[in-house]
Design goal:
384 residues, mainly alpha, 18 helices, 4% strand
Length: 384
């Protein structure tokens, strides 16, 4: 299976397009990595317990019952490992399916191209919080295996809990991904544990707050930011409850919003989810190729995508072409026969000829709305 994945990757011709598909292929890898690490931890724990039980058998008062318990424990370990192995096989099959999809897009398959567009729309719906609409569209278009429905469901559940001032789901997620978070020097776990201390202080449960600091915060990796945050929180232990919300930003509602943003950022990083959806990224790539200094001005063209989507194109750089090209406002194609009307607008002669009124020989300028004689008023345009 892994050999077939490598073979599929080598068939992709345009490596630049892989930049847009990085998340599609990376997310299954992160799932596989998490499943492997979870299985390794489970195996270590059960084997340690089993070896300790075997060593204690000679001195056990009821060795037969102890042996039966050991057999049951090993059977339970085998069952869990089998479940994890099945999950890994499913993830590898998912990776193969996504590799086949990317390869089909590269080969110009029309069905794969439509699926790519549907995937971008579903991804935008899921990250925007419209999960039901995203699931329905994914099911109708057959792209359920190409989008991260479960990941976004998990993200929104934990984010909703943080907004409701419930820190437990986020702490559980940190516990599952603790090794990776510490390897990346993430401040998330420290900030969440300190927020739990703040919750205890605000409820005037200061002894519990001190114990929580000693148990959870004291074991976190030390750095200047962590120590500074601990100082700010511990200083509030001596303040009366009535002055806490006015004294420290840690006790305001904006603190929960900052935690939510921090969690979303770390969640996307750990699961290789991009900051913006694939749909937005594809639109930005296209808009940056046609955006000009005149886009978004009061005299903008309604048919210009960069003008129509000015909010999305606002922060994008201007396009830089070695050779300029004139696009006809009617056909939006490069003009090889440009003509200019007295209104000052330039069009393709072929496009205007198709719009000429056969009885009067006049043509209406689409931009100004004025009528002109095609043979007398249309002048050949030259670009220097």
């Amino acid at each position: 299976m892994l050999r077939s994945l490598v073979g599929s990757e080598m068939c992709i011709r345009d490596r630049r397009s892989m930049e847009l598909e990085h998340s599609l292929l990376r997310c299954p890898w992160e799932k596989l990595n998490l499943a492997f690490r979870s299985g390794h931890k489970l195996l270590d724990k059960h084997m340690t317990d089993a070896l300790a039980a075997v060593e204690a058998l000679p001195s056990h008062e009821q060795p037969v019952q102890a042996l039966e318990g050991l057999v049951e424990s090993l059977a339970e370990m085998k069952r869990k490992l089998q479940e994890m192995d099945d999950e890994e096989v499913q993830v590898i099959a998912l990776s193969q399916q996504r590799m086949d999809h990317v390869q089909a897009v590269e080969e110009g398959d029309e069905g794969a191209k439509r699926a790519r567009i549907h995937r971008g729309v579903v991804d935008w719906l899921l990250r925007s919080g419209m999960a039901d609409a995203g699931r329905d569209l994914a099911r109708q278009t057959g792209v359920e295996e190409l989008v991260e429905i479960q990941l976004y469901d998990e993200l929104h559940v934990i984010s909703k809990a943080l907004k409701a001032h419930d820190i437990r789901p986020a702490l559980q997620w940190c516990h599952t991904n603790r090794s990776r978070l510490r390897k990346a020097a993430s401040p998330l776990e420290c900030q969440l544990q300190l927020q739990q201390v703040v919750v205890l202080i605000k409820a005037d449960r200061r002894i519990e707050a001190v114990r929580h600091l000693q148990k959870h915060v004291g074991s976190l990796p030390e750095n200047s930011l962590v120590l500074e945050a601990i100082k700010k929180v511990t200083c509030s232990l001596v303040l009366p409850p009535s002055s806490l919300s006015d004294t420290h930003a840690w006790f305001s509602d904006q603190r929960w919003e900052a935690l939510d943003l921090l969690f979303e950022r770390e969640f996307r990083t750990m699961n290789a989810l991009p900051e913006c959806s694939g749909l937005e990224l594809a639109l930005q790539v296209g808009l940056s190729g046609i955006k000009s200094p005149w886009c978004g001005k009061p005299s903008k063209y309604p048919s210009c995508p960069a003008c129509h989507l000015a909010g999305l194109a606002e922060r994008l750089p201007l396009c830089a072409h070695a050779q300029s090209s004139l696009l006809c406002p009617i056909t939006m194609k490069v003009m090889d026969d440009p003509v200019v009307l007295p209104s000052g607008y330039v069009y393709s002669a072929k496009a205007l000829a198709e719009r000429v009124d056969q009885r009067s020989g006049r043509v209406r300028c689409p931009e100004s709305g004025l009528w002109f004689d095609m043979s007398a008023d249309a002048r050949r345009a030259f670009v220097i």
